């Protein structure tokens, strides 16, 4: 056993000396593997980081939460022209489902609308996310109040002009002053600030409650009615824990179809979007991105492998005389085989490590610049290292075998 370790050690030493003595050749051989490993690990790290941020954004929400409205989160077999004819969900349907749908934990009615500017005295904050909703919304999505309170059921039903503002909105309008009880202007109307949310930070989709405001949806309905084209109504439903989601969706479909008077042959003119289905859609997209990354990076890895194989054949040719002398002095075929095999593996592994180091540096820079956490995981490091070793092994095995099978007399004569 000790003899084998000594053999491996001497082979490794010969390989390292060969790489040091041919620096330019070593550098050129590294490029292909470095680019290939950099490409695939960069794609995998970006996809993993995106998935991690998406999961973090949705971590506080029940993955069975249903978004019921006229649009689909993912692809649909229904033609676009037909989808555009779908009616919006209504406040009356929200009330109907609230009374008649079983296994519901919370259900809210919301408007999705465009960003607006908000004003307090001479201070204006632009591009504010406006989120009118019923009071149940605060029990569907996670909210943490820093100051004050959220609006209650009575204020929600009557459409009182009260408002809860995000952390950044409060800072932009009031600086260091207490915003509670102050009157701010939105849509040309005055709203009383009753609460400020704790700072949250931006999620993967660029959304953040820090730059959002929340107020009773019935205030908007009293002002603009239910048919304003700048608003997209949606009903959010949080089912009770432990229920069968498919059965819940089937009941919801049946209730809404019956309420809308759809005939048996009519298609559903609404979409039931479940957050878990959205994450599956994201997983499908990231999976496709991984496949594309592997395909594109595979060409670089292939070029890198051919480069290493070519260099190893040249190395065998240049050191034919030395191989003959080593075998004449008693070197076994295994010693010669391991010597060249180690050289190819070390060359490839070193190129892979450089590629992963570049990914790590870029990840740090992008994390600081974009405020998006890029992560180079241990799994990707192990994968990159293993891939580099495999490339070196495959690229070096044939040159190493050819070197180990050289006849010592012929090898010495060829080198003279």
UniProtKB/TrEMBL annotation:
Subcellular localization, as worded in the UniProt entry: Cell membrane
CC terms in the record's Gene Ontology section: plasma membrane
Membrane topology according to the record: Multi-pass membrane protein
PANTHER family with a match to the protein in the record: ABC TRANSPORTER PERMEASE YTRF, MEMBRANE COMPONENT OF TRANSPORTER-RELATED
Organism whose genome encodes this protein: Flavobacterium indicum (strain DSM 17447 / CIP 109464 / GPTSA100-9)
Record keywords, A-Z: Cell membrane, Membrane, Transmembrane, Transmembrane helix
Descriptive protein name: Probable ABC-type transport system, permease component
Pfam families on file: FtsX, MacB_PCD
Spans traversing the lipid bilayer: 27-47, 291-314, 335-366, 378-398
Statement: the UniProt record of this protein carries the keyword Cell membrane: yes
Residue ranges constituting the ABC3 transporter permease C-terminal domain according to the UniProt record: 295-408
Taxonomic lineage from the root: Bacteria, Pseudomonadati, Bacteroidota, Flavobacteriia, Flavobacteriales
GO molecular function, one term: transmembrane transporter activity
Broad class of the protein's primary localization: membrane
Boundaries of every MacB-like periplasmic core domain copy: 26-254
UniProt record similarity statement: Belongs to the ABC-4 integral membrane protein family.
